[in-house]
Amino acid sequence: MANFSKSNVPQFSVEVYQNEFLPEGGREVNAIVTVTSTGGGTTGGIPLAGSTPSPVFGPGQGPDAAVVLMVDCSGSMDYPPTKMRNARDATAAAIDALREGTRFAVVAGTHVAKDVYPGNGRLAVADQQTKAQAKDALRKLSAGGGTAIGTWLRLADRLLGAAEVDIRHGILLTDGRNEHEAPEDLRAALDSCAGRFTCDARGVGTDWEVKEVTGIAAALLGTADIVADPAGLAADFTSMMENAMGKEVADVALRLWTPVGVEIRFVKQVAPTVADLTGRRTEAGPRAGDYPTGSWGDESRDYHVCVLVPEAGIGQEMLAARVSLILPDPSGAGAPQTLSQGLVRAVWTDDMVASTSINPQVAHYTGQAEMAQVIQQGLDARKSGDFDGATAKLGRAVQLASASGNQDTAKLLSKVVDVVDAATGTVRLKAKVAEADEMTLETRSTKTVRVKK
To answer: SS3 of 118, please?
Structure first.
C-alpha cells in the first residue's frame, strides 16, 4: 500500500482484500479495493475507523470551488404551492452553507434554462452580500412552463466551465418527468457534461421518474435521493452543500493496469453505493485504463475489480492487476500524479480449502450488488403485473439485506412486502403500497453497508 500527500491534496491510501488462491485451471480473480482519503472537510457519510470529525473550512479556506444550483420552476412546482416555497427555502439554505469565496450561480429550470443569479452568464463570489442578493433573487422565482433538464445541465456546464477552479459541482432539484425534450437530448447533455462537473440530483414529491434522476447522478458521479415531503428539502440541501464544500480534489481516476493475457470482467464501485464503472473506461497507455471516481473529501469508498487471468499450473503465481489512483495535471501539460496503488495477485494451489475460500469482503459486496439488481427487477416485475416474479426477486432482496446487516434497505423493503421469514427470503407482496415508499426503495436500492469488522 502506497500513499501520496501534498498540502492541498488529501492523503490517499489503497487496500486490497482478496483470496489470491486459485484451483488448477482457475481463471477468475476478484478483489475489493478500499480507497480512503483523509484531509478534506467531510466524511462523505462513511466514518473512517478511529477518525475524529474534520474541521469545517473557514472563510477563504479549502480548494477553489464553483457550484450551480438548478431549481425546477416548471408549472407542477405550484401543486401544492408549498412545494415551490420549500424549494426556494432549501436553495436559500444551501446558499447559506456556501464557503466564502466559492463561485456560484442559481439556474431556474423549465423548458428552458435561465441563470437568475447573478445573471449574464457569470458566477458570483460567495460572501455576505452576494448570498443575500441570491436569496432576494430566489424570492422572485415562480412556477410555470415545462421540464427540459438537458438545457439546465448545459447552462450549468457553461457557467462552471468558465471558472478557473479545482472543484465544479451542480445540485439539481426536480419534481416532474423530463417531458419537454427527447430522452436522447438529455442523454447527449449528460454525455457532454460527464467529466466536466459532478452533480447531486434530488426528486421532490412523487411525480418524477426515478430512473431519470438516478441516471443523472450516475452519469455525473453524484448522489441521488428522494425527498418525498418537500418540508425536508432544506435539511437535505444543506447537507448536500456541506458535503460539496468538503471536497478537496476532483477528477481522481482509478487506473487498472493488467498484464498481457488478462481480461477485465468488470470494475464497480460497491460502497457507499453500487455503480458500474466498466463501460466508462478511457484508455491510459498500454494495457491500462482509467475509471472516473469524481471528487473526494474525507471519505472511504470500496470498488470490486474482477479479472480473468490465463490458466497456469500449481505453484505458479502472477500479478493479476495493479490498481492506482491517478490525479491528472490540471494544466494538461504535465504527467499525472500517482496518489496511491495496490496489487491484485493470483496464486495457483492444490489446497482445496485455500482455493475455495471466498474472501469476506468479496462475498459481502457480491451480495450487495445482487441485492440492488433484484430490487430493481422486483419493482419492474411488480409494475408490469408479474407478481410471482416480483415476490421471488424482492424475497431474495430481503434475504440478502438480512444476511448483510443492511437494516436501512430491509426497512424500505418491509414497506413493499410483508416479511414472513427474512433468512429464507419468504415474503408476500403488500396489496397496497404508498407511491413514495416504492419510489424511495427504488431510489435507494443501490445504497450499501460495509463489511462488519
So the answer is: coil
